[in-house]
Amino acid sequence: METVALPRTLVEKMLTAGESFAKFTDELEDFLLSQDPKFIARMRAARASHLAGKTQPLEKLERKLSERAKIGAMDRKS
Questions:
Q1: In this structure, are residues 53 and 47 in contact, taking their beta carbons and an 8 Å threshold?
Q2: Could you tell me where the beta strands, DSSP code E, fall in the chain?
């Protein structure tokens, strides 16, 4: 297999195109979520819950997720 040398300008254009596409997909996702009534309702409910002080320490959430992952791993083994 031979190595092909690419001009630096071509590689730079590919990188620029990739960055532009990543930015586009991020903006598209933001737009689509902003138009989704279910997502907006969930975000409003989450914000209200947060403002009402109904929060948990991150450590508690991490323990809960870790326990679920262990249970899931055991279920897959059996």
A1: no
A2: none
- Return d(Cα 57, Cα 53) in angstroms, integer: 11
Residue with tokens 């031979």: 2
Burial letters 41-60, b for 16+ CB under 10 A, else e: eeeeeeeeeeeeeeeeeeee
Cβ atoms 36, 42 nearer than 8 A = no
Question: What digits encode the pLDDT tens for the residues 9-29?
Answer: 999 999 999 999 999 999 999
What is the Rg, in whole angstroms, of the alpha carbon atoms belonging to the chain? 22
Chain mean position to CA 36: 17
In terms of pTM, does the model score above 0.85? Answer: no
